[in-house]
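Predict both folds.
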Amino acid sequence: MGDADAPTVSVSLSSPTDIPAVLNRAGIDHVSVHDHRLLAIYHTAILNVTTDPHQISDAQTLEVECWEDPIPSRADGKSSQDILQDFTDVFDSAGDY
């Protein structure tokens, strides 16, 4: 975990966003670690989601790192980078829920 070569993506949100609430509405399992970090399980991949300087419940930017790749049989042939992109797309449509 925390591999320097792990796929990572930065996300800028259009407005302050309650990340746990968005994940709950999208049905994505997650566990809060502290005010600026949570771990999400998406297509069996484990994603580390961090925010700075704002708290995870009022985030304006995210760093999402793929800590553990998805189980190949559950990834539908997608790379870790594809999984990250699909995960971050949830925040683009956060207002659609």
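Second protein follows, with its predicted structure tokens after the sequence.
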Amino acid sequence: MLKSEDFYFSNLYMTKNYLTVTERQSLNILAEEKKIVLFESGSSFYSFFNKLDAERYPIGLPGMSSVYYAKENNIPIVTKCRLTRRLAEEIGVLVYSYEEMLKLINIQQNQIDHINNLLLMLENSQNN
């Protein structure tokens, strides 16, 4: 999520196998350096989660908590997951792609292209 150039991540991403060890370490370092905000999900999130149709929205808890937090705090969400996008849009949350978000914070197109290439390489290496 993005608010005033601050990036918010659900602390639920730090549990289970949602991220690799390196990704978790990177998020921890960024949080310690106050470059991102890790937020916790309270009991109101779980009420929201329990009311949703899990078959219609088969999204992991971290993504679901991000949508809820974005709605509650009027923050746009950044995602490439089409199910997360659909849920967010259906409950009135503004959704950006990674590229749109990078442009909003004035990243140059050549840097965006480089980041997209890195992400593609990571996805390919995880799928092999």
